[in-house]
Amino acid sequence: MNRFATLEARAPVTLYHDGHCPFCRVEVAWLAKHRHQERVKLVDIQSSEFNSEEAGRSFEAMMGQLHLKDSQGRWFIGMDASRALYAVLGYRRLVRLSCLPGLHSVMNAGYRFFARRRIRLGQWWEKRQAKLSSRD
Fold first, then answer.
1. Can you point out the beta strands (E) in the chain?
2. pTM of the predicted model, to two decimals?
């Protein structure tokens, strides 16, 4: 896939997310209120109604990285899923910037690092937020 393929994602898209991930929940809440929310269908892969086989992917793979499917049936995975999502939402300049040589690779590596640690980071973040809230 070429670096700029994510700019070709077509709405509506289906975003498969981990409903147990604290960071994913924050992002999904933002998406649910977004002015272009009709362009995105949100699917929680932790829901009892979700069947990964119907989606044509393994649950383990979907838990490992973000998955997005566009209206043309194209899959975008990992950082490319984020890029495709933001392109569909109208942030094409930001996506184009993230596709530049060097930055593209760094962001992909950063995403993989984050994805592997998102649960532990999310637990730490929730504890930190709770401490900050209790001080108020």
1. 13-17, 40-44, 67-69, 75-77
2. 0.88
